[in-house]
Amino acid sequence: MAATAASATAALQWTHAGHPGWEPDRAWRREVRELARRRDAVLLAHNYQLPEIQDIADHVGDSLALSRIAADCAARTIVFCGVHFMAETAKILAPDKTVLIPDARAGCSLADSIDAEQLRDWKGEHAGAAVVAYVNTTAEVKAEADICCTSSNAVEVVNSIPVEREVLFLPDQFLGAHVQRVTGRSNLRVWAGECHVHAGINGSQLAAKAAAAPEAELYIHPECGCATSALYLAGEGAVPAGRVRVLSTGGMLDAARATRAREVLVATEVGMLHQLRRAAPGVEFHAVNDRASCRYMKMITPAALLRALREGVEEVTVPADIARRARGAVRRMIEIGQPGGEE
Ligand code: SF4
Questions:
Q1: DSSP code string of 106-134
Q2: Same domain, 38 and 119
Q3: CA 244/CA 210 separation, integer angstroms
Q4: Residues 178 and 250 grouped into a single domain
Q5: CA-269 nearest atom, ligand 1
Q6: Quick one: which atom of ligand 1 is closest to the CA of 295?
Q7: Does residue 340 sit within a domain?
Q8: What is the pTM of this model?
Q9: What is the side-by-side order of every strand in the sheet holding 263-267?
Q10: Looking at the domain assignment, is residue 142 inside a domain?
Q11: 280-304 pLDDT per residue, tens
Q12: 47 in Cβ contact with 342 (< 8 Å)
């Protein structure tokens, strides 16, 4: 069965808890690894995946790191444990490989906040502007963009565009505000999209958590709705500026390995805690909001992964003309910035 962007989008209207029915026990692990070997498949898992999916994967990382691996790996099949736009990006970069997503209903509320027609209308209002699309977009939207970015390289991508040229940045308003602040560009227009998970992490929660743990460092992901207010609070002295770090998820892992703090508060999706705890077992990591969990990411259950490998489903396809146009924007993203190691 071929999975399209439309099927992922339709999934947003469904109430879905993923494919149930398998415990991630030793028999499951053995069968997953054996089937992956027989299919000549590489298992890629995003940082926000369930811990058992992260642990069985060949590679765990953010969008940028996983895109690079998808483009370069020798395996004939890529099993992408993440959300639909990520698997689509892998297919765009590796058109000759079979790309499977264990549950094609794993969409993304941020990617769904703009479609290709809306982008074409926006471009029509800003003739000559460069379009920077966050990687959390559908293939159709990427095909309308000049260059893609992730949270790891968004600032570098925008800085690569001549300062006099207007920039349309989409779809994440929080990442856009972060980039606007860091680059100081007044000609950067930001689409008002948001992710339901990150938008749920707010400044008052952050301030209360910070006050309750005065010795803890604070790691903030630029996609979080709390980034602006956290920096504002730091500037006001409510949270000491030295405790606040605005980091990509890959940057968080590097900081975790190097920190001397015993406790760290983390403002991002809770799946990231698994990687952080593995990277720095001696540090206590706490989520700013325990409910900041992406329901789409969690659709990739152990049963869904096993089904994908047993049955060769669900195959991700991208029409050739859209893939060709999107590939240029994605490749330019990959050329700028270093792998984050881990959205
Ligand atoms: S956490 Fe938000 S941006 Fe990431 S996949 Fe889920 S809905 Fe999309």
A1: ---TTGGG--HHHHHHHHHHSTT-EEEEE
A2: no
A3: 10
A4: no
A5: 1
A6: 6
A7: no
A8: 0.86
A9: 244-246, 217-220, 263-267, 284-287
A10: yes
A11: 999 999 988 888 889 999 999 999 9
A12: yes
Shared domain for 11 and 100, answered yes or no, is yes
Q: Which residues, 6+ apart, have CB-to-CB distance to 157 below 8 Å?
A: 132, 147, 148, 149, 332, 333, 336, 337
- Cα separation, 110 vs 205, whole angstroms: 22
* H or E stretch at 262: none
> Which tens digits make up the pLDDT trace of 326-335?
999 999 988 8
- For residue 143, the CA-to-ligand 1 centroid distance in Å is 20
24-28, 32-36, 334-338: lowest mean pLDDT where? 334-338
Nearest CA to ligand 1 atom 1: 294
Q: Closest residue (by CA) to atom 8 of ligand 1?
A: 108
Closest CA relative to residue 229, chosen from 266, 253, 203: 203
Do 189 and 211 fall into the same domain?
no
In CATH, what number is assigned to the domain containing residue 51? 3.40.50.10800
**What's the full length of the chain, in residues?**
343
In whole angstroms, give the CA distance from residue 142 to residue 331: 11
Kindly report the backbone phi and psi dihedral angles of residue 126, in degrees, each rounded to the nearest multiple of 5, phi listed first.
Answer: -135, 65
Whether 172 and 110 have beta carbons less than 8 Å apart is answered as yes
Q: Which structural domain range is residue 254 located in?
A: 197-287
